[in-house]
Amino acid sequence: MPPHPPGAHRGTRYGVRVTRTPLSLPGRTVIFDYGEVISLSQSPADRAVIAGLAGAGDGAAAERFWAAYFAHRDGLDLGKAGAVAYWRAIADDIGAHWDQARVHELWAADLRSWLSVNPAVIDILADLRAGNTPLALLSNAGPDYASFFRHGPLADFFSACYVSGELGLLKPHAEIYRHVLGDLGVTPAEAVFIDNRESNVAGAQALGITGHVFTGPGPLRAFLASLGPAAAR
Questions:
Q1: If we measure between CA atoms, which residue out of 150, 166, 158, 149 comes closest to residue 77?
Q2: At what angle do helices 100-113 and 44-54 cross, to 10 degrees?
Q3: Which residues contact 128 (CB under 8 A, 6 or more apart)?
Q4: Are 214 and 30 in contact (CB under 8 A)?
Q5: The model's pTM
Q6: pLDDT in tens, 188-215
Q7: pLDDT tens readout for residues 31-64
Q8: For residues 23 and 224, is the Cβ–Cβ distance under 8 A?
Q9: What is the distance between the alpha carbons of residues 144 and 156, in angstroms, rounded to a whole number?
């Protein structure tokens, strides 16, 4: 068996032996977005299932459906009226009528479409934890995602999970970042924020938080490594 690289950490997770190269950021807490950072984007197959359940088909009907889907997303992510009201608002926009069973099917298909994760980002999370770097999650999402974040496998990584639909606050508004900082007990200078949306990162940076716009696992790993003690020497 070849030797482990310098600084590698060896251990077990659920009985599986793993080797990690720790990413240690002393004095920093790294706050991750979920959607399209940890999670993958919705796949074409997932989108086809959702559109099919909506009766949207292809072409102009599909375009109207997806426009309504995203137009009402902020309301869902703020937790204003819940998932049923969200799908009813979409139906009103496109002139559809869905019974309760179909609304449930749409909700379930939509939830599933955001559950696939990027393995390379999970590796980064594991390396940060191996380096004893505190981690938190901050997601614009409905409150129905909270249980998945807190009780699924991601809970192994995060000391706290913040969901906009529970807080009634939304990125990129300053109040949600202030809430997270206060709850974690860290200053802006001690926080690092990762998100795929430039506007969300800019909102954090305006408060003095170090930010990074996620474009892929490679640039993210390089950015985090640049903040570590080895880079400072």
A1: 166
A2: 170
A3: 22, 23, 25, 30, 135, 157, 224
A4: no
A5: 0.89
A6: 999 999 999 999 999 999 999 999 999 9
A7: 999 999 999 999 999 999 999 999 998 889 999 9
A8: yes
A9: 19
